[in-house]
Amino acid sequence: MNINPNPAKAAGGRRRAVVAGAALALAAAAALTTAGPAGAGTVAATQQSTVYAWIDGWGGGTVTSSPAGISCHTTAWDPYGSEEPQPGSTGPCSASFPVGTTVTFTATPDTGSAVNGGPDPASLTVRAGYNSVWAMFCPNDGLCSSW
Q: DSSP secondary-structure letter at 58?
């Protein structure tokens, strides 16, 4: 057992140590609440989300985006005169854009086809989660309809 000949001095020393320790703990807590996780200030500003282009119909054409990133093309196909399955779309049919970016879409038909619907939407503001645009191309001979 440690006996201190001056109890008042010993109590004051403990009080100073407790106050200094509390001040240090408060300073550390303040630093943590203002600093946040590493890179937290840049995460929201650079959050990306994917936009998908879906092309329907039997005609050929391309859906493009502005800003650039999507250039999705489909080839015309005759379901009644072809033994081959319908070809899939080619080119980048999806792209990542910063959340909050307004993306505008254009549907351009190939020769012999027409835009029968879309692009829908014509533009969108990218949000976190699912973002998509749709367009339909039909051959000029009227083999399909979006209505």
A: S
